[in-house]
From TrEMBL:
Coiled coil: none annotated. The keyword Secreted does not apply. Residues 130-225 form the SecDF P1 head subdomain domain. This is Multifunctional fusion protein. Residues 227-395, 521-716 form the Protein export membrane protein SecD/SecF C-terminal domain. InterPro entries: SecD, SecD/SecF_arch_bac, SecD/SecF_bac, SecD_SecF_C, SecD_SecF_C_bact, SecDF_P1_head, SecF_bac. Its main location: membrane.
Amino acid sequence: MKDKKNHIWFAMILIAGFLLLTIFGAGSDVKGIRDMRFGIDIRGGVEAVFEPVGVTGVPSEKQMEAARNVMESRLDAQNITDREVTVDKSEGHIIVRFPWKSDEKEFNPEQAISELGETAKLTFRDPQGNVLVEGQNVADSSVTRNTQTGEYEVELQFDSTGAKAFAKATQNLVGQQMGIYMDEQMISNPKVKQAISGGQAVINGMADYEEAKALSDKINSGALPFSMETSNYNTISPTLGSQALKAMVTASIVAILLVIIFMISIYRLPGVISCLTLVFQMCLQILALSIPQYTLTLPGIAGLILSVGMAVDANIIISERIGEELKTGSSIRSAVKKGYHNAFSSVLDGNLTTAAVAVILMIFGSGTMLSFGYTLFTGVIINLLAGVWMSRFMLESVIRYDKCSKEKLFRKKKERKMIRFAEKRKWVFLFTACVLLIGGAITAVNGVKLDTQFTGGVVLKYTYTGDADTEKIKESANKVLGRPVSVQTSEDSATGDKKLVLTLAGNEGISPDDQKKVSEEINQLSDTQYELSETFAVEPYIGAKALKNSVLAIALSALFIIVYIWVRFQSLSGLSAGVSAVAALLHDVILVFFVFGVFRIPVNDAFVAVTLTIIGYSINDTIVLYDRIRENIKKQNTGKKESLCALVDRSITETIGRSVKTAVTTAICVAVVLVFSLVYHIESIRVFSLPLLVGIISGCYSSVCVAGPLWVSWKEFRSRAKSTVK
């Protein structure tokens, strides 16, 4: 008994330890929050122009896209998710922008570029030096471990062309060496033991994991259709100033304090415990980003603030369940025990569906999507660990103290008047349709603008001396051209030459007259004079492959949700419940899209990030409702029968408190971020937080008002259809 009373103190020491670890780190291997790798928008970075070597003329579009994909894979392998990789169509160059390392002090572009690895051409050759297979035919290379010997190996996967060439080569070289070359340097010389068909092979004989990983990375980095080199690199300025970072840090503190006040005022003692748990969760979340050095951008900080709101979700469900048990007359200890037990299925189902979405994003994602998937996945795991286990560990300990086991320290749930959304669903559906029609009409009138990330665009480079006010320049260029413009400054570290870089979205190019107007406009802003030095067109920063993978990931996520609910909620005729849940999610995604149209926000990767956030967030609400419907169906089987509408309305009434409170805590966090972005004119955060705030409100609405009533309509339609057939 006494040991359990002391659990709260062990937990407090553990939380304090992780808080110190998060702030200060522990040597070079465990980096704290002060040593995180910040994105280009916060700290600036490097711009490098890679040029093909030994190629006559401009490489083909297919070759350039292959080179671009290799560059992005290399950056993903280094956890550099804040980057821009695009193609200069006219010259055949790859332009890469990426942030500094966390420990970079001298800001040396040449040293930073070495992080990208070798860019030589990979070939497989026989002992006489004849090229048998080229690197561009290697689809992937990864490190595996032989289950029989325990040794690390490098696994190769070839495309269809490479598979045929490799099969023929290995058939002719059985018992001989096959050299793997990076340009003219041999990086491996494995012995061919047998003919290999099927497009897969392994290279063994590795001393350890590090050697295998180094070889695998070289093969991936060399899977280019040609060699590439760079002699043109610059230091680039942050897209946002230090004021923006300070504003977001302040927003974080304000958001956390507001959530703490909200939780304690509503749930009292369980609210205090959930706030301590929240600190633990945030420490783990930050360490999950800082230790592997995932790039943290300002939208990433906004995402962390959002996770503050979502992190209390499990504790709200649990606290609501404890309140229900107290209402039935249970003792404090019994209510806490039953509360955790009854809440677990909702928490588990909600987190498992979200975790699956995150895994799909990590498999298919690159750049921002990969980063989001990783952050979402770690957040889910941490929520299950800290949100459930840690809070229970502390609450069950603290209620063993007499002063903490009084009912006034808990919130007893009150009887709520029945909410009849399912019964009045025609009016709900009519209201929903009106909102969507109005949003669609305004969006159609305004039109939807795509940012440079999706459309590509034109880059104007100016030389200048003195200081450049990038915000004023951006406003002036926008006024002249009427299209999205991003502005950055760069500096050649060797010569000190400064350049102003304007990237104009859209694939329509720019006329000489418009170039002249822009130049005249920005030269009138101050004494600083800008001279146009270079103009060229670039491909979209988000390539066709990345865009296709984003759509595929979202589609697979929706399919998984349908299948998971189908299997887990058989008592709800799972397929209809799954389709209804996805229809509610589709409502949220459409509404978020309309926000971009109504407020004339150019669609960029923020839309993808917001969409994925809302999918993960909204499905949690729907799962909680379905879990309560399932529970009430079981009770109904042993008691008085009620209509389907009445059962769903009762389930909505019982869970609406949790849904609204979760939405309020999350909305508080996002609203704080939005307010700070408006006050400090942080455009990249505004275009992220405004649609996200609408999406959170929509997610709560669709889960409560759309998913359940839509399922009732489906069930009643099927019932009438069966009756007609009979």
